[in-house]
Amino acid sequence: MGRLREGQYFCFCLDHVREYNATYNYFNGMSDEDLLRYQKDAVTGHRPTWKMGANRAGPASPGMADPFHMQGKTARNRTPRHGVVARKALHVLGLDDDAGPGEIKVRYKELVKRLHPDANGGDRSNEDRLREIINAYNVLRSFRAV
Asked: pLDDT per residue over 59-86, tens digit each?
């Protein structure tokens, strides 16, 4: 039967269904404001939404108790700087998770100079370790940590 009468039906023959549908207007009787609100809600399928981050409760949120200081912090009570892959790459370079771009670059250059075969009289025993270091540095470059 239409809006506000969901679940109720007319029993028409096919000709009368066509006649009824030709003149039917679901929005008949709605104000302009109601119509605009309906159109806006139709974008999300008439489901409630909120802005991204609007309902996030952080440590500074009023009324939100955080007695153990766990909100947004790691076990060492600081926010993580890198993801898991980047942290593994930092570990390969022998650096902490909070290493900065300059520190990463300096450590990379130091390790490459020390392990490169040309610096060791052609000795290739450290070649696998050198490859790991180069790959780790490339990972950090791809994450723009360097």
From this structure: 455 556 666 655 655 445 454 566 888 8
Q: How far apart are CA 12 and CA 18, in angstroms?
A: 9
pTM: 0.45
**Contact 117/123 with Cβ under 8 angstroms?**
yes
Taking a C-beta distance cutoff of 8 angstroms, is the pair 12, 20 a contact? Answer: yes
Containing 85, the helix (H) or strand (E) segment is: helix 84-93
Terminal-to-terminal C-alpha distance of the chain: 65
Separation between Cα atoms, residue 54 and residue 97, nearest integer Å: 29
Q: Can you tell me whether residue 18 is helix, strand or coil?
A: helix
* Cα distance between residue 55 and residue 1, in whole Å: 39
pLDDT digits (tens, 9 = 90+) for 128-143: 999 999 999 999 988 7
Structural domains in the chain, CATH included, are 1-53 (no CATH), 84-142 (1.10.287.110)
Q: What is the pLDDT of residue 73?
A: 52
Using a 10 angstrom Cβ sphere, with 0-12 exposed, 13-18 middle and 19 or more buried, the burial of residue 103 is middle
The SS3 assignment for 22 reads: helix
